[in-house]
Amino acid sequence: MSTDSKDSRPPAQVEIGDEQDLKKKLQPLAPQPLADVVKMELLADKDRVELETIWTAYHEEKKSAVGTTLRAEEWETLSHRLEQNPMFVFPVKKGDGAFFVLLAEWKENTLLMTFLEDYQKNPALADPYFYLKAYPDFAEDRDLVLLRGEFLPYLTKSEANDLLDSALDFYLEPSKFEHVQTFNHRSHLFDFNKVFGI
């Protein structure tokens, strides 16, 4: 699954500048509570459509975060499937045939994606490049679950959006979900090339 180079780690997508700024951008990711992301009091009286609009617009402006929403029923399906199938692999295509692979693992309403080769060397030391955090705070009263992904500069915002979409597609679409089930429960039958080709 690795590329031809000795170290297939993707180059960080950062501009040359202040070393302290670079170190800050490459700090390990840590999912935040919703109250640390947005001012909860500003969302208290918003209906579902307004919440969706605010959440989407908020993340369009963020350089290192992406966001989307799900209806409560979709979230129930997604969370159940993630609990039963907590791991999967996602290729990140870089153009000219180059790619690297992220391994995703579900823990506590968060899907963490780490560089596969780092995980293979030492799972305990493999830092996430991307995480997807679910906030079901508004699921009951407004039929809405907020999803937020943050990523390190090894990924572009476009690639992070693609990972967000891919995670939802593979766990929610029945034909793609079969690959996830195979990976988790019948790994000897898993064909990465089929996933790569989708």
UniProtKB/TrEMBL annotation:
InterPro entries, sorted: ATP11
Subcellular compartments: Mitochondrion
GO biological process: mitochondrial proton-transporting ATP synthase complex assembly
Residues spanning the signal sequence: none
Ranges for region Disordered: 1-24
Chief place of localization: mitochondrion
Gene Ontology cellular component list: mitochondrion
Claim: Nuclease is one of the keywords in the record: no
Source superkingdom: Eukaryota
Keyword Ligase: no
Pfam family, one: ATP11
Keywords from the UniProt entry: Mitochondrion, Transit peptide
Protein family: Belongs to the ATP11 family.
PANTHER family referenced in this protein's UniProt entry, alphabetically: ATP SYNTHASE MITOCHONDRIAL F1 COMPLEX ASSEMBLY FACTOR 1, CHAPERONE ATP11
Record's protein name: ATP synthase mitochondrial F1 complex assembly factor 1
